[in-house]
Amino acid sequence: MTDPGKSPEYDGIVIGAGFAGLYAIVKLRELGFNVLGFEKASDVGGVWYWNRYPGARCDCESYYYSYSFSTELQQKWRWSQRYAEQPEILAYLNHVAEQFNLRRHILFDATVERMVFDERANRWTVTSSRGTATAKFVISAAGCISALQKPDYPGLDAFAGELYYTGAWPHEEVDFSGRRVGIVGTGASGAQAIPIIAKTAKHLTVFQRTPNFVLPARNAPMDPGFDDWVKAHYDEIRTMCLNSPGAVPFEGSKISALDVSPEERAAVYQKAWDRGGLRFFVDTFNDLITNKEANDTAAEFVRSHIRSVVKDPRIAEMLSPRSHPIATKRPPLGDDYYATFNRPNVTLVDIASTPITSFSARAVRTAEASYEIDTLVLATGFDAMTGALLRIDVRGRGGLALKAKWAEGAKTYLGLGVAGFPNLFTVTGPFSPSVVANMPTGVEQHVDWIAGCMNYMRSHGLEFVEADESAEEGWVAHSAEVANATLYPQTSSWYVGANIPGKPRQFSVYLGGFSSYREHCERVAQNGYEGFAFGR
Ligand code: FAD
Ligand code: NAP
Fold first, then answer.
1. Topology of domain 150-205+344-381, per CATH?
2. Topology adopted by domain 4-147+384-530
3. Which of 36, 185, 237, 427 could bridge 249 with an S-S bond, Cβ 3.0-4.6 Å?
4. Is pTM, for the whole model, over 0.85?
5. Each residue of 348-361: pLDDT tens digit?
6. What is the atom index within ligand 2 of the atom nearest the CA of 57?
7. Coil, helix or strand for 233?
8. How many distinct helices (H) and strands (E) make up the chain?
9. Alpha helices in 252-399 (DSSP H)
10. Per-residue DSSP letters for 16-43?
11. Ligand 1 atom nearest to 192, measured from its CA
12. Radius of gyration, CA atoms only, the chain
């Protein structure tokens, strides 16, 4: 057993112990690299360690929101539900850590604060809250949706009740019974938590700034017959994921929403709605994110559903998104979301027209009213994509700060490397398909590519690798061109950083499709890592 952090030198330092960090350790160790992990949390799990709020579960189905790297693991592990709940996903990642003996490589409660590249030695010195280590390579697996954003509400300190963030939920169960609860945020976290909290709270007040399109998950216990089928077909399922634009095992529709009659269109939407899940955007029509007119048909389908479920027409209209095309903010999945607003113990408050102005010991106040609250839940999101890395003081060549380099917006080559920052790899970094593809598949593809590059360097006696500035510029420009052909960049969402005051507006996800991106990365490697420079 190694004592993490005690060895002076490592081949690779991995930041984070979620899906990405754990697999990076597996892979690097398999290739004989000496590896150390730093993790801010007290244990493994990443997102599934931190987000323990009621109702937290995945919105990709568990049979493919899981690792593919071990046949034994995927054959033995049994998911109990179509979309596993947070405790089950965390148990899965704990099982992986135990099965592959990963904890012995990880220093927990260790927040990486600073990392500096030494150009003479071609090594990174990484300083954490629990000590310093050096390594030839740093693999950032710090997460796309891991840097919690606390809204800067003046006067929040005056609130004397219980205050919880969905993204940093306590480990003990929170009991809402008999309590007047307020929740701010109706993104994916809020949409999952609201129906559950409403069931036990004395009263739930939902403070909504922007209504979202919430699609039904249709969660259900995992059917044993389907589970057997999955296990017998895992190779084909994983291959489909690798070859699909969203890293999911489904064929996408090839039909435009505008090429069918309104009756046919409604039937297609209804069938996908009844099946449930984000497959709605894969199964129905192929132009929902590229053509506003096509998008409007899907948006109106969801709004008509809201009107059919929510009894009070005024509340139904408040819940109906009008300000953004469907899917340009990540659509949450949830069962019973809209029906929850029919409950007598639930109040919906529109804080777009009457923003929160202040707090008192037991109330949230808007310009129009005061709402008595014992418990406040903030489901207000994350500084996504760049937040986790930029919270570290990263210094590359010539002391260049990553914060300075990315001051006007992130720049990467393939979401894997950053010019000026040799031997630093970013797993699912900006301008990779990251959050628009099923993430475990994306994580494995990135880690395999990174490990392949490290192996190549070892066998060629190379000391550093660095993205070319011109390759980086070309990739960022290409990514922007692809994104601008869609409706995504028009919407103020966390995808473009609009939720973070002062953050440069930029759509930093590669939208060209996971399969073509993966093939591109493979070609780059086959061509001697085209677009990267090496040194001895
Ligand atoms: P993370 O799981 O975010 O892990 C990053 C780790 O890095 C964290 O443990 C963090 O503590 C650590 N870290 C960060 N900074 C530092 C530092 N400075 N020092 C030390 N450690 C640090 N994606 C999907 O594809 N499908 C889903 O269904 C899905 N559901 C989600 C549900 C929730 C509630 C959330 C928040 C996200 C969800 N996602 C989903 C996206 C999610 O980010 C990925 O699925 C996946 O968890 C990414 O794994 P990761 O290891 O890359 O990052
Ligand atoms: P989010 O999507 O960013 O939603 C944050 C919510 O809080 C939004 O409704 C936002 O309103 C509101 N908000 C933020 N700051 C506010 C402020 N100062 N005042 C008032 N309202 C404010 O965050 P999230 O719900 O945590 O989800 C983030 C991402 O994590 C998701 O998109 C998804 O990718 C992932 N996730 C997935 C699941 C899942 O089902 N598997 C669950 C949770 C999270 P505006 O829209 O007006 O900004």
1. FAD/NAD(P)-binding domain (3.50.50)
2. FAD/NAD(P)-binding domain (3.50.50)
3. 237
4. yes
5. 999 999 999 999 99
6. 41
7. coil
8. 17, 18
9. 262-275, 280-283, 292-309, 313-319, 337-340, 387-390
10. --SHHHHHHHHHHHHTT--EEEE-SSSS
11. 34
12. 23
